[in-house]
Amino acid sequence: MGDTVLFKKTAIIGLGLIGSSILSAMRDRGLTQTIVATDTDPSSLNFAKKVGLIDEIAPDIDSLCQTDVDLFIIATPTRATSAIIYQLACAKADGNIANTAIITDVASTKMSIYQAVLGACEQNNQPSDWLNFVLSHPIAGAENSGVHARNPRLFVGRQFIVCTDNPPTAKAHFIQKIKILWERIGANVIIMNSQRHDEILAYTSHLPHLLSFNLTYQLASHDDNLDIFRYAAGGFADFSRISASSPVMWHDIFMDNKHALLKSLDEYEANLATFRQLIEQEDSVKLIEYLTTARHARRHFGHMLAQAQLHKATHNPHLPRENAMTDQTQRYHITPSQAIHGTITVPGDKSISHRSIMLGSLADGITHVSGFLEGEDALATLQAFKDMGVRIERDGDKVTIYGVGVDGLQAPKDALYMGNSGTSMRLLAGILSAQAFDSVMTGDVSLSKRPMERVAKPLRQMGAVIQTTGEKGTAPISITGGQKLSGIEYALPVASAQIKSCLILASLWANGTTTIIEPEISRDHTERMLTAFGYPVNTDGNKISITGGGRLTATDITVPADISSAAFFMVLGAIGGGEGLTICQVGMNPTRTGVIDILKLMGANISVSNETVVGGEPIADITVKPSDLVGIDIPEHLVPLAIDEFPVLFVAASCATGTTKLTGAKELRVKESDRIQVMADGLGTLGIDCTVLEDGIIIDGKGVAGERNAVFGGGHIDSHHDHRIAMSFAVASSRATDEIVIHGTQTVATSFPNFAQLAGEVGLNISIEQGE
Fold first, then answer.
1. What's the CA gap between 772 and 761, in Å, rounded?
2. Average pLDDT, stretch 534-547?
3. pLDDT (tens digit, 9 = 90+) per residue, 252-274?
4. Can you spell out the DSSP letters for 238-279?
5. What is the CATH number of the domain that holds 152?
6. What is the domain extent for residue 88?
């Protein structure tokens, strides 16, 4: 079964490789009901109609403009696109295009398109967003062209750029809809403005094509060109391949992106002159330095290309060794149910599960772990250490780790795949920075959007050689081995257990003492577990100090139930009807209980019983009964103690009477998704009024004291590959009027594999639908 229809009728101008591949992807995923197309080549239109790619043929653009079309796609060369924009503007002015229809393009340059949109709107005395034009560009292609070469998976795992400019060419909800379209097709959507797009593409695409055309022209102009081509090696074949592209298309691109292209060409010529000088002067030292830098950069780029191919695969080649990722189009269908009651146990704590594998692997001796979380995030960490030569045996939630000591890790054969786990990637960066071997870490589409410079920068201060990707410093991460690390004093810019733990782990190998200063207390599982493994950690208020050079001694670890997973059922017990819920043996680490403190401030009826301590971690049973919640201003000192639980706390706030305000939570914007914006979008879909702040959100609750009134409507929610978003909106269904459909729920398996089962056992009406 395909994805939910986004557009009833789609019109496309141009049935080349890109245009026909877009239609194939939309057809395969059920994203549109009807397709009408026009093209300058009648044979392409007839073929597309014959094979069922399109439903209707329009002989020209005027006949393509129909008031029931809700999406227009322009898939023509750049200069043709600009002219078509004026035609569509005239059609809209004449009433032949609906006011709600979206127009988008796929051109390789964006500033010229942006100017054309502004010009067309101005010509019709309309504001800049009148055309509902979303400027976009898929970074994808193939050697073959035309409708016969169409490929519905051409864009899977590829970058897709959506441009937002000032003044805007479309309102935010139209841009969001195009973003969702391309995410459903499988692309990795990036937002930037048109000028930035053209600058980046000038360096990464347009300049390389220009140089390829130039070199091929240069060699073809030689009198002895036949001999030159006869003896050309593979390097020339690879480099000149792209000059076989369409001259007309590249003429348009070079002209339309002239300023950015000439700027990149000037820089190229300057660097070329430097290389010429080094060779002329036989400066071997400097030349080797330049060549080595280029080699490292190219190897890192190779890892990025490899990851793109990894994303294109239907199944990840690394993860199935422990746990296969479920279907990427999985959905939850949930109908309202208020009869919530039961006693449950949620899976083991994810943070402790990660750290038990890491420290157990680095310890001397055998570590036994019970209660290990069998989610994909924790299994990614387990697999990474297996790939580095650690013998690990797993029987359900029981794990035996045969530690290799701090000096025993081995170079992995391939890049270490971290799946969706930011904890794995950030903490492992600290360990890998101190190893003798080179290493690379990659992740899935969601993880590849998350910032990694926050750990890379302090690691470089310690002496690590680490390279992240792109302007935002994301995965893949390349780490050069054989570096000597030194202890530093580092003040964390934000309270983050991941950054803190990364530096603590790196400091195990550093010369001297590393001191980390936190702005607020964050979860301290790493410090507690290091102590359990016999490694001294000195904590003085917000200062944590650790001296390198010691060893770890194996110990047994019991993983308590994860309070972050329990939080979904705490909120469900508070907002649902019935008798409430009890969650057993939950980890009650005082750096993790902010969710309980916040719910109590909101008036939740929560009691704690059977308190004890296991392996240095406090645990207890938590009982939550239906409660009349009230809106509050959430104290900022509690924010880092509940950072992962805020999505479901936003659901609680929606069911409260009055307004809830959160500030000081900018960290939420760099989780698996921008959790503030994504939750606000989803809550808005379900009828909740929210105001997004730079570092928080204001939610107007719709609860009524003494009642279990429905506060949410029904609707479709995009989880944005974020497991906590998906589970939070599942909880919201207990106070909804209609069915809620949550897309992309396969990521729930990263932290809570049996969530749907447990939710069903306590009263939610939840069913799972798999995509094709």
1. 27
2. 95
3. 889 988 999 999 999 999 999 99
4. HHHGGGGS-HHHHHHHHHHTHHHHHHHHHHHHHHHHHHHHHH
5. 3.40.50.720
6. 7-192
Exposed/middle/buried for residue 632 (C-beta within 10 Å: 0-12, 13-18, 19+): middle
CA 262 to CA 198: how far, in whole Å?
A: 12
Give the containing element (helix H, strand E) for 491. strand 489-491
Least confident of 170-184, 210-224, 375-389: 210-224
- 341 and 354 housed in the same domain: no
Give the active site residue among 165, 349, 524, 644. 644
Three-state DSSP state, 748: helix
3-class secondary-structure state, position 403: strand
Residues 571 and 553 in one domain: no
Are residues 426 and 387 part of one domain? yes
- What CATH number corresponds to the domain at position 462? 3.65.10.10
Does residue 284 fall inside a structural domain?
Answer: no
**For residue 326, how far is the Cα from the chain centroid?**
17
Same domain, 444 and 493: yes
Q: Is a pLDDT exceeding 70 seen at residue 313? A: no
Q: Residue 660 and residue 653: Cα distance in Å, rounded?
A: 6
Boundary-marking domain end, from 192, 208, 236: 192
Pairing of strands 439-442, 416-417: parallel
Residue 720 amino acid letter:
H
Q: Are residues 516 and 424 in the same domain?
A: yes
Residues for the chain: how many in total? 772
Pairing of strands 339-344, 331-335: unpaired
Structure token pair of residue 643: 């950072």
Averaged pLDDT score across all residues of the chain: 90
In this structure, is the dihedral angle defined by the CA atoms of residues 498, 501, 506 and 512, taken in order, positive or negative? positive
Task: Read off the pTM.
Answer: 0.63
458 prior amide bond cis, ω within 30: no
39 is catalytic: no
Indicate whether 27 and 150 sit together in one domain.
yes
Q: Which two tokens stand for residue 270?
A: 């300057």
Phi, psi of 203 (to 5 degrees): -75, -45
Question: Has residue 633 been placed in a domain?
Answer: yes
